[in-house]
Amino acid sequence: MKRYVNNENGLSLAELLAAIAISSFILVSIYGVFFSGLNAYKRIFIENQLRSEADYIVATIMNKLYAFAPDGIAMDQTTNAQIVFVSDKEIQFVSDESINPSNPSLVMIKKEKKPTPETLTVVLQDGSIAIDGERLHSDRLKIVAEESGFSYTCSQQEEEEKKICRSGVVTIKLAVQDRDHDPGDLLHVKPFTLKTEFGF
């Protein structure tokens, strides 16, 4: 025969308060973990956006340079916040029968000075980067001017005026930051820095 306990006393006030305190502690802990995970996810998303934007900016600069086909860098106009590429020579195709008279379709390529040189200017200004006045990034992105800049090393200068570097290596350093979150904000992310070097 089974025995049943017949207890109608219920919970005391102390037991009820202890149960509420333990439940509150568990719920606050769960909420804290959830909130931290959500903030970490948002920060990672912002970091990925910064990385993507920096990659896009550099890819755009490289595409513009490829299309522009510069002949050098204007050394007198280039600073840490601005780099000026110059295209002052044009390619001419000349048929030269004297090299191979039996094949007059042989073509020589000569580079001649253009009457008016063209320039392509990449500039860092007011928290943004632009090529010939066209901004390359969205409004959410800010270029950190103190940590960004242009530099170059020249291996061959123009002999006449020494104002144009004809060959060398360009270094572009970009530090990008999210405009929406200040340093005191929970979602603040340190600036992402991208350094690119290429020869010309």
Automatic annotation (TrEMBL):
Q: Which UniProt keywords apply?
A: Membrane, Transmembrane, Transmembrane helix
Q: Which domain of life is it from?
A: Bacteria
Q: Where are the transmembrane segments?
A: 16-41
Q: What is this protein called?
A: Prepilin-type N-terminal cleavage/methylation domain-containing protein
Native organism is: Parageobacillus thermantarcticus
Its taxonomic placement starts with: Bacteria, Bacillati, Bacillota, Bacilli, Bacillales
